[in-house]
Specification:
alpha/beta, Spore Coat Polysaccharide Biosynthesis Protein SpsA, Chain A, 2 domains, ten-stranded mixed β-sheet, 8 helices, globular
Length: about 280
Amino acid sequence: MITFNICDHRKEVVVNDRVNDRSKKKASISAYIITQNEEKNIDRLLSSILWMDEIIVLDSGSTDNTVNIAKKLGAKVSYHSFSNYIEQKNEAMSLCTGEWLINLDADEEITPELRKSIEMVLDYKNFTDKPDIYNIIRKTYYMGRWINHCGWYPQYITRMSRRGKASWSGELIHEKLVAESPSGTLVGDLLHRPYGNLGDHLRKMDKYTEMWAHQESKAGRKASIHSLLLRPMGKFIKIYILKAGFLDYVPGLIVAVMASWYTFMKYARLYELSRNIE
């Protein structure tokens, strides 16, 4: 794994960055984002990437102000009916024209340190010697604090790739960006604010456990009593004790409990489906 150690001081970003702050010695970069009803988050994300050459927003039918906000901030907005995350992200990627592509979620935000790291990759100097794909370190804000343990940090996610060198694949709710070549790792955190409150967290858990259960049921998998009892317990022990979630105080405890509940609900729903319970 190749790591670029880069630091930068915080800079103010304005809309004109995309035109005035680009160097002819740098490759172009496109950001692509899939959205649906993200008006609470999209402004913060787009404001952190206005310096990029192109911003692609692929919306799947927002009924709030997401599309208007994105257009106002200069994004190119298209519509594509949602089928699954893999298809949606590959579609968004296909709309990009940059030499480098980076996928971001609407509830994320690029830090100045990460921006500097990305810009070093874009530098044409030693351009061919760089990896075709990069991991990014994500840091999550939850219950009023940045989580530093629980297995949540550092969280390495693969998001940036050279055009034509990677694609999205994987499972229905665990999509991943893959390439044939080894990956590098960018320095600087990608900030993540996935839940506005516990209600948001529970609603997303409900959505993803249902998707997971249907996926596993179609594959012929069934849930056992051991899965229902032991897997949730194991998840709690792993996050709260082995991954030092207790060092994140009460939020760390809540993370562990919610992860245990998420695990239980996955297998409870699979049990329900496998026995055709109505």
